[in-house]
Design brief:
The chain is an alpha/beta fold. The strands form two sheets. The chain has a six-stranded mixed sheet with strand order 1-12-2-3-4-5, with no helix packed on it. Helix 1 packs across helix 3. The chain is elongated, with a radius of gyration of 23 Å.
Protein backbone atom coordinates (compact mmCIF):
# COMPACT_ATOMS: atom_id res chain seq x y z
CA UNK A 1 0.00 0.00 0.00
CA UNK A 2 2.76 2.56 0.78
CA UNK A 3 4.30 1.77 -2.65
CA UNK A 4 0.98 2.49 -4.38
CA UNK A 5 0.57 5.73 -2.41
CA UNK A 6 4.09 6.89 -3.27
CA UNK A 7 3.52 6.06 -6.95
CA UNK A 8 0.28 8.09 -6.98
CA UNK A 9 1.95 10.99 -5.17
CA UNK A 10 4.88 11.06 -7.61
CA UNK A 11 2.47 10.85 -10.58
CA UNK A 12 0.43 13.74 -9.20
CA UNK A 13 3.49 15.94 -8.66
CA UNK A 14 4.99 15.12 -12.07
CA UNK A 15 1.64 15.83 -13.72
CA UNK A 16 1.51 19.23 -12.08
CA UNK A 17 5.08 20.03 -13.10
CA UNK A 18 4.10 19.19 -16.69
CA UNK A 19 0.96 21.38 -16.58
CA UNK A 20 2.87 24.22 -14.92
CA UNK A 21 5.64 24.22 -17.54
CA UNK A 22 3.10 24.08 -20.38
CA UNK A 23 1.30 27.00 -18.77
CA UNK A 24 4.51 29.05 -18.63
CA UNK A 25 5.10 28.29 -22.31
CA UNK A 26 1.56 29.38 -23.16
CA UNK A 27 1.96 32.67 -21.28
CA UNK A 28 4.89 33.58 -23.53
CA UNK A 29 6.86 36.76 -22.94
CA UNK A 30 5.36 38.26 -19.79
CA UNK A 31 7.02 40.02 -16.88
CA UNK A 32 8.85 38.13 -14.18
CA UNK A 33 6.35 39.50 -11.65
CA UNK A 34 3.40 37.88 -13.46
CA UNK A 35 5.29 34.61 -13.83
CA UNK A 36 5.95 34.53 -10.09
CA UNK A 37 2.27 35.29 -9.47
CA UNK A 38 1.24 32.46 -11.76
CA UNK A 39 3.64 30.08 -10.02
CA UNK A 40 2.45 31.05 -6.54
CA UNK A 41 -1.23 30.68 -7.47
CA UNK A 42 -0.68 27.38 -9.29
CA UNK A 43 1.31 25.62 -6.58
CA UNK A 44 -0.93 26.95 -3.82
CA UNK A 45 -3.79 25.10 -5.50
CA UNK A 46 -1.73 22.01 -6.28
CA UNK A 47 -0.49 21.61 -2.71
CA UNK A 48 -3.67 22.72 -0.94
CA UNK A 49 -4.92 19.19 -0.24
CA UNK A 50 -1.73 18.31 1.63
CA UNK A 51 -2.30 21.29 3.93
CA UNK A 52 -5.90 20.25 4.57
CA UNK A 53 -4.89 16.71 5.56
CA UNK A 54 -2.10 18.02 7.80
CA UNK A 55 -4.53 20.32 9.64
CA UNK A 56 -7.71 18.23 9.52
CA UNK A 57 -7.69 17.38 13.24
CA UNK A 58 -6.28 20.63 14.56
CA UNK A 59 -9.67 22.29 15.08
CA UNK A 60 -8.12 25.72 14.47
CA UNK A 61 -9.42 26.30 10.92
CA UNK A 62 -12.92 27.85 10.61
CA UNK A 63 -15.27 25.43 8.84
CA UNK A 64 -15.93 27.74 5.88
CA UNK A 65 -12.19 28.25 5.28
CA UNK A 66 -11.45 24.55 5.66
CA UNK A 67 -14.25 23.65 3.24
CA UNK A 68 -12.95 26.04 0.57
CA UNK A 69 -9.43 24.68 1.00
CA UNK A 70 -10.71 21.11 0.79
CA UNK A 71 -12.72 21.73 -2.40
CA UNK A 72 -9.81 23.51 -4.08
CA UNK A 73 -7.27 20.90 -3.01
CA UNK A 74 -9.37 17.85 -3.84
CA UNK A 75 -10.71 19.43 -7.03
CA UNK A 76 -7.14 19.95 -8.17
CA UNK A 77 -6.75 16.17 -8.35
CA UNK A 78 -9.38 15.94 -11.10
CA UNK A 79 -8.12 19.14 -12.73
CA UNK A 80 -4.66 17.55 -12.97
CA UNK A 81 -6.04 14.30 -14.39
CA UNK A 82 -7.97 15.92 -17.24
CA UNK A 83 -5.40 18.61 -18.02
CA UNK A 84 -2.71 15.96 -18.48
CA UNK A 85 -5.03 13.86 -20.68
CA UNK A 86 -6.08 16.80 -22.86
CA UNK A 87 -2.54 18.16 -23.12
CA UNK A 88 -1.33 14.73 -24.23
CA UNK A 89 -4.05 14.66 -26.91
CA UNK A 90 -3.21 18.16 -28.15
CA UNK A 91 0.46 17.18 -28.29
CA UNK A 92 -0.53 14.31 -30.55
CA UNK A 93 -2.54 16.70 -32.73
CA UNK A 94 0.51 18.95 -33.04
CA UNK A 95 2.55 16.03 -34.39
CA UNK A 96 0.23 15.86 -37.41
CA UNK A 97 -0.54 19.58 -37.59
CA UNK A 98 2.58 21.59 -36.80
CA UNK A 99 0.74 24.91 -37.14
CA UNK A 100 -1.47 24.06 -34.16
CA UNK A 101 -0.51 26.40 -31.28
CA UNK A 102 -3.47 26.48 -28.89
CA UNK A 103 -3.08 23.20 -27.04
CA UNK A 104 -2.91 24.65 -23.54
CA UNK A 105 -5.86 27.04 -23.99
CA UNK A 106 -8.06 24.33 -25.51
CA UNK A 107 -7.08 21.84 -22.80
CA UNK A 108 -7.88 24.38 -20.09
CA UNK A 109 -11.26 25.22 -21.64
CA UNK A 110 -12.25 21.56 -22.06
CA UNK A 111 -11.16 20.72 -18.51
CA UNK A 112 -13.14 23.61 -17.01
CA UNK A 113 -16.27 22.67 -18.99
CA UNK A 114 -15.95 19.07 -17.85
CA UNK A 115 -15.54 20.10 -14.22
CA UNK A 116 -18.63 22.32 -14.37
CA UNK A 117 -20.62 19.43 -15.86
CA UNK A 118 -19.27 17.05 -13.20
CA UNK A 119 -20.19 19.43 -10.37
CA UNK A 120 -23.77 19.83 -11.63
CA UNK A 121 -24.12 16.06 -11.98
CA UNK A 122 -22.82 15.52 -8.44
CA UNK A 123 -25.43 17.92 -7.03
CA UNK A 124 -28.30 15.81 -8.43
CA UNK A 125 -28.12 12.24 -7.11
CA UNK A 126 -30.13 9.64 -8.97
CA UNK A 127 -32.85 7.42 -7.56
CA UNK A 128 -32.27 3.72 -8.21
CA UNK A 129 -35.28 1.46 -7.56
CA UNK A 130 -34.97 -2.34 -7.37
CA UNK A 131 -37.80 -4.81 -6.82
CA UNK A 132 -36.41 -7.70 -4.76
CA UNK A 133 -38.55 -10.80 -4.02
CA UNK A 134 -37.71 -12.79 -0.87
CA UNK A 135 -38.58 -16.47 -0.62
CA UNK A 136 -38.89 -16.37 3.18
CA UNK A 137 -41.68 -14.54 5.05
CA UNK A 138 -41.80 -11.75 7.58
CA UNK A 139 -44.01 -12.10 10.65
CA UNK A 140 -46.52 -9.31 10.03
CA UNK A 141 -46.28 -7.98 6.46
CA UNK A 142 -45.47 -8.92 2.88
CA UNK A 143 -43.84 -5.72 1.64
CA UNK A 144 -41.02 -3.48 2.89
CA UNK A 145 -39.42 -0.30 1.54
CA UNK A 146 -35.72 0.11 2.33
CA UNK A 147 -33.69 3.21 1.45
CA UNK A 148 -30.00 2.30 1.28
CA UNK A 149 -27.20 4.84 0.95
CA UNK A 150 -23.45 4.72 1.39
CA UNK A 151 -20.42 7.01 1.35
CA UNK A 152 -22.06 10.21 2.57
CA UNK A 153 -18.63 11.54 3.66
CA UNK A 154 -19.95 14.22 5.99
CA UNK A 155 -17.42 16.89 6.87
CA UNK A 156 -15.53 19.35 4.72
CA UNK A 157 -16.65 17.62 1.52
CA UNK A 158 -20.36 17.17 2.29
CA UNK A 159 -21.36 20.16 4.39
CA UNK A 160 -24.42 21.05 6.41
CA UNK A 161 -26.45 22.59 3.58
CA UNK A 162 -26.09 19.55 1.35
CA UNK A 163 -26.86 17.27 4.30
CA UNK A 164 -30.17 19.11 4.82
CA UNK A 165 -31.17 18.55 1.18
CA UNK A 166 -30.12 14.91 1.34
CA UNK A 167 -32.17 14.26 4.49
CA UNK A 168 -35.20 15.81 2.77
CA UNK A 169 -34.67 13.51 -0.24
CA UNK A 170 -34.57 10.43 1.96
CA UNK A 171 -37.59 11.42 4.07
CA UNK A 172 -39.61 12.10 0.90
CA UNK A 173 -39.39 8.36 0.15
CA UNK A 174 -41.20 7.52 3.41
CA UNK A 175 -39.02 4.43 4.00
CA UNK A 176 -39.75 1.64 6.46
CA UNK A 177 -36.03 1.18 7.02
CA UNK A 178 -32.85 3.17 6.28
CA UNK A 179 -29.49 1.47 5.81
CA UNK A 180 -26.15 3.31 5.66
CA UNK A 181 -23.34 1.26 4.17
CA UNK A 182 -20.37 2.98 5.80
CA UNK A 183 -18.27 6.13 5.32
CA UNK A 184 -20.91 8.33 6.90
CA UNK A 185 -18.04 10.54 8.09
CA UNK A 186 -15.16 11.70 5.92
CA UNK A 187 -11.61 12.34 7.16
CA UNK A 188 -12.29 13.86 10.58
CA UNK A 189 -15.21 13.95 12.97
CA UNK A 190 -14.39 17.52 14.10
CA UNK A 191 -16.19 19.44 11.29
CA UNK A 192 -19.18 17.11 11.71
CA UNK A 193 -19.36 17.92 15.43
CA UNK A 194 -18.71 21.64 14.93
CA UNK A 195 -21.52 21.90 12.37
CA UNK A 196 -23.88 20.00 14.70
CA UNK A 197 -24.73 17.59 11.92
CA UNK A 198 -26.28 15.21 14.46
CA UNK A 199 -29.33 17.51 14.49
CA UNK A 200 -29.91 16.94 10.78
CA UNK A 201 -29.28 13.20 11.04
CA UNK A 202 -31.91 13.07 13.78
CA UNK A 203 -34.46 14.40 11.26
CA UNK A 204 -34.26 11.13 9.32
CA UNK A 205 -37.53 9.23 9.49
CA UNK A 206 -37.99 5.47 9.16
CA UNK A 207 -40.62 3.47 11.02
CA UNK A 208 -38.28 0.52 11.64
CA UNK A 209 -35.13 2.47 12.39
CA UNK A 210 -31.82 3.50 10.87
CA UNK A 211 -28.80 1.17 10.86
CA UNK A 212 -25.25 1.56 9.61
CA UNK A 213 -21.88 -0.17 9.55
CA UNK A 214 -18.45 1.47 9.73
CA UNK A 215 -16.46 2.14 6.59
CA UNK A 216 -12.75 2.66 6.19
CA UNK A 217 -13.22 6.41 6.68
CA UNK A 218 -14.71 5.89 10.14
CA UNK A 219 -11.38 4.26 10.97
CA UNK A 220 -9.42 7.06 9.26
CA UNK A 221 -11.40 9.59 11.32
CA UNK A 222 -10.99 7.56 14.53
CA UNK A 223 -13.51 4.77 15.03
CA UNK A 224 -14.16 5.49 18.71
CA UNK A 225 -14.72 9.21 18.11
CA UNK A 226 -17.08 8.36 15.24
CA UNK A 227 -18.94 5.84 17.39
CA UNK A 228 -19.37 8.49 20.10
CA UNK A 229 -20.80 10.94 17.57
CA UNK A 230 -23.14 8.35 16.04
CA UNK A 231 -24.28 7.48 19.56
CA UNK A 232 -25.74 11.00 19.80
CA UNK A 233 -28.01 10.28 16.84
CA UNK A 234 -30.84 7.82 16.26
CA UNK A 235 -28.55 5.77 13.98
CA UNK A 236 -27.61 2.35 15.37
CA UNK A 237 -24.03 1.34 14.57
CA UNK A 238 -23.57 -2.37 13.87
CA UNK A 239 -20.10 -3.86 14.20
CA UNK A 240 -20.12 -7.63 13.68
CA UNK A 241 -23.60 -7.82 15.13
CA UNK A 242 -27.08 -8.99 14.17
CA UNK A 243 -30.37 -7.23 14.78
CA UNK A 244 -33.76 -8.87 14.33
CA UNK A 245 -36.47 -6.32 13.63
CA UNK A 246 -40.00 -6.80 15.06
CA UNK A 247 -41.18 -7.83 11.57
CA UNK A 248 -38.66 -10.69 11.53
CA UNK A 249 -36.12 -9.19 9.11
CA UNK A 250 -32.57 -9.89 10.23
CA UNK A 251 -29.79 -7.33 9.64
CA UNK A 252 -26.16 -8.42 9.72
CA UNK A 253 -23.87 -5.44 10.18
CA UNK A 254 -20.28 -6.36 9.42
CA UNK A 255 -17.33 -4.31 10.66
CA UNK A 256 -15.00 -2.83 8.04
CA UNK A 257 -11.90 -4.58 6.71
CA UNK A 258 -9.80 -2.09 8.69
CA UNK A 259 -10.65 -4.29 11.68
CA UNK A 260 -8.37 -7.24 10.93
CA UNK A 261 -10.09 -9.36 13.59
CA UNK A 262 -13.64 -8.88 12.33
CA UNK A 263 -15.87 -11.93 12.11
CA UNK A 264 -16.30 -13.78 8.84
CA UNK A 265 -19.57 -13.69 6.93
CA UNK A 266 -19.91 -17.42 7.54
CA UNK A 267 -19.65 -17.00 11.34
CA UNK A 268 -22.20 -14.19 11.33
CA UNK A 269 -24.61 -16.05 9.03
CA UNK A 270 -24.57 -19.08 11.35
CA UNK A 271 -26.11 -16.91 14.07
CA UNK A 272 -29.22 -16.13 12.01
CA UNK A 273 -32.63 -17.79 11.92
CA UNK A 274 -32.73 -19.68 8.61
CA UNK A 275 -36.51 -19.33 8.39
CA UNK A 276 -36.43 -15.51 8.18
CA UNK A 277 -34.95 -13.16 5.54
CA UNK A 278 -31.45 -11.75 5.98
CA UNK A 279 -29.87 -8.48 4.79
CA UNK A 280 -26.10 -8.02 5.09
CA UNK A 281 -24.44 -4.59 5.18
CA UNK A 282 -20.70 -4.73 4.45
CA UNK A 283 -18.92 -1.54 3.37
CA UNK A 284 -16.32 -3.01 1.01
CA UNK A 285 -17.51 -5.44 -1.69
CA UNK A 286 -14.80 -8.06 -1.37
CA UNK A 287 -14.95 -11.87 -1.17
CA UNK A 288 -18.52 -11.94 -2.46
CA UNK A 289 -18.30 -15.68 -2.93
CA UNK A 290 -18.22 -16.10 0.86
CA UNK A 291 -21.57 -14.34 1.13
CA UNK A 292 -23.05 -16.37 -1.71
CA UNK A 293 -21.84 -19.62 -0.13
CA UNK A 294 -23.70 -18.98 3.14
CA UNK A 295 -26.95 -19.65 1.27
CA UNK A 296 -28.91 -17.48 3.72
CA UNK A 297 -28.10 -13.87 2.80
CA UNK A 298 -30.88 -12.42 0.63
CA UNK A 299 -29.28 -9.00 0.00
CA UNK A 300 -25.76 -7.72 0.48
CA UNK A 301 -25.51 -3.94 0.31
CA UNK A 302 -22.05 -2.36 -0.08
CA UNK A 303 -20.41 0.87 -1.21
CA UNK A 304 -16.81 2.06 -1.02
CA UNK A 305 -15.94 1.99 -4.75
CA UNK A 306 -17.77 5.21 -5.76
CA UNK A 307 -17.77 3.51 -9.19
CA UNK A 308 -14.43 5.28 -9.66
CA UNK A 309 -16.17 8.67 -9.30
CA UNK A 310 -14.73 10.08 -12.53
CA UNK A 311 -13.84 8.49 -15.85
CA UNK A 312 -11.39 6.84 -16.55
CA UNK A 313 -10.91 5.86 -12.88
CA UNK A 314 -14.19 3.93 -13.17
CA UNK A 315 -12.32 1.51 -15.45
CA UNK A 316 -9.80 0.93 -12.65
CA UNK A 317 -12.46 0.11 -10.03
CA UNK A 318 -14.13 -2.30 -12.46
CA UNK A 319 -10.79 -4.07 -12.72
CA UNK A 320 -10.12 -4.09 -8.97
CA UNK A 321 -13.54 -5.22 -7.72
CA UNK A 322 -15.60 -8.25 -8.62
CA UNK A 323 -18.68 -5.99 -8.66
CA UNK A 324 -17.65 -2.34 -8.66
CA UNK A 325 -21.12 -0.90 -9.18
CA UNK A 326 -24.73 -1.92 -9.55
CA UNK A 327 -26.91 -4.99 -9.13
CA UNK A 328 -26.16 -8.64 -9.69
CA UNK A 329 -27.75 -11.83 -8.41
CA UNK A 330 -25.54 -14.81 -7.62
CA UNK A 331 -27.12 -17.96 -6.33
CA UNK A 332 -29.52 -17.04 -3.55
CA UNK A 333 -28.00 -13.60 -2.91
CA UNK A 334 -28.87 -10.23 -4.45
CA UNK A 335 -25.75 -8.02 -4.46
CA UNK A 336 -25.87 -4.25 -4.81
CA UNK A 337 -22.74 -2.06 -4.77
CA UNK A 338 -23.65 1.62 -4.58
CA UNK A 339 -21.67 4.40 -6.21
CA UNK A 340 -22.38 6.47 -3.10
CA UNK A 341 -24.82 9.16 -2.01
CA UNK A 342 -22.03 11.74 -2.03
CA UNK A 343 -18.33 11.22 -2.67
CA UNK A 344 -14.84 11.57 -1.31
CA UNK A 345 -12.83 14.64 -2.19
CA UNK A 346 -13.42 16.26 -5.59
CA UNK A 347 -17.06 17.40 -5.94
CA UNK A 348 -17.42 15.98 -9.45
CA UNK A 349 -19.24 13.06 -11.08
CA UNK A 350 -17.99 12.45 -14.61
CA UNK A 351 -19.19 9.25 -16.25
CA UNK A 352 -20.70 8.09 -12.92
CA UNK A 353 -23.57 9.18 -10.67
CA UNK A 354 -24.35 9.78 -7.02
CA UNK A 355 -27.35 7.75 -5.96
CA UNK A 356 -29.92 6.73 -3.40
CA UNK A 357 -30.99 3.08 -3.65
CA UNK A 358 -34.57 2.02 -2.92
CA UNK A 359 -35.24 -1.68 -2.36
CA UNK A 360 -38.93 -2.45 -2.87
CA UNK A 361 -39.01 -5.83 -1.11
CA UNK A 362 -41.78 -8.40 -1.39
CA UNK A 363 -41.89 -11.47 0.83
CA UNK A 364 -43.31 -14.97 0.58
CA UNK A 365 -46.75 -15.46 2.16
CA UNK A 366 -46.84 -16.00 5.91
Amino acid sequence: MPVVFIALLVSYLLGNVYIFVRGLQALGQISCFLKWGYGLAYWTGALMLFAVFALRRSGHIPFSVGQIMFHIGSGWLVFTLYMVLFLAITNLVKVFCTSFHYGFAISLLLTCCLLIYGYIRYQHPERQVLNIPFDRPLTDRDRLKIVAISDWHLGLGTGLEKLKKDVDRINAEKPDLILIGGDLIDNSVLPVINQKMDRELNRLQATMGIYMVPGNHEYISGIEACADFIGKTQIKLLRDSIVTLPCGLQLIGRDDRQNRTRLSVRDLAQLTDKSRPVVLIDHQPVDLAATENTGVVDIQFSGHTHDGQVFPLSLLTRYLFDISYGYEKRGHTNFYVSSGFALWGPPFRIGTCSEMVIFECSFAGR
